[in-house]
């Protein structure tokens, strides 16, 4: 479950991407649409000043508050890099 860090109360508008920037503030940018040029300038919605911790995901939730959630670190293990690359003998007919 997510833990609310800052109760901002941001009202979301359609067509914008809401996120927590590098400085820990809640910000938004217009979403990219096919065939349209969009400004990449960030608009700061609320100055929270959150310090990020490793292993956590920071986001603006549905209620407009900044929240954090622990990232899941499970998953399938990678195969070892040192697999034998010897060629197999094939029968020719």
List the helices and strands and how they pair.
Elements: E1 3-6, E2 16-20, E3 26-30, E4 43-46, E5 56-60, E6 66-70
Antiparallel strand pairs: 1-6, 2-3, 3-4, 5-6
How does this structure look, described?
The protein has 93 residues and is mainly β. The protein has one domain. It has strands at residues 3-6, 16-20, 26-30, 43-46, 56-60, 66-70. Strands 1-6-5 form a three-stranded antiparallel β-sheet, with no helix packed on it. Strands 2-3-4 form a three-stranded antiparallel β-sheet, with no helix packed on it.
Compose a concise summary of this entry.
This protein is mostly beta strands and about 90 residues long.
Name its key features.
mainly beta, three-stranded antiparallel beta sheet
Spatial gap, N to C terminus: 62 Å
Model regions low in confidence, pLDDT < 50 over at least 5 residues: none
Question: What's the number of extended β-strand segments?
Answer: 6
Radius of gyration: 22 Å
Residue share in β-strands: 25-35%
Helix and strand run? EEEEEE
pLDDT averaged over residues: 85
Structural class: mainly beta
Strand order of the largest sheet: 1-6-5
The global form is elongated
The percentage helix is under 10%
Total domain modules: 1
User: What is the count of DSSP helices, taking H or I runs of 4+ residues?
Assistant: 0
Major sheet details:
3 strands, antiparallel
């Amino acid at each position: 479950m997510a833990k609310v860090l800052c109760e901002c109360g941001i009202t979301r508008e359609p067509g914008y991407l809401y996120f927590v920037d590098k400085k820990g503030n809640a910000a938004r940018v217009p979403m990219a649409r096919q065939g349209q040029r969009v400004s990449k300038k960030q608009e700061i919605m609320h100055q929270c000043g959150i310090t990020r911790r490793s292993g956590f995901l920071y986001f603006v939730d549905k209620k407009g508050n900044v929240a954090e959630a622990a990232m899941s670190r499970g998953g399938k293990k990678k195969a070892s890099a040192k697999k034998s690359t010897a060629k197999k003998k094939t029968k020719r007919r």
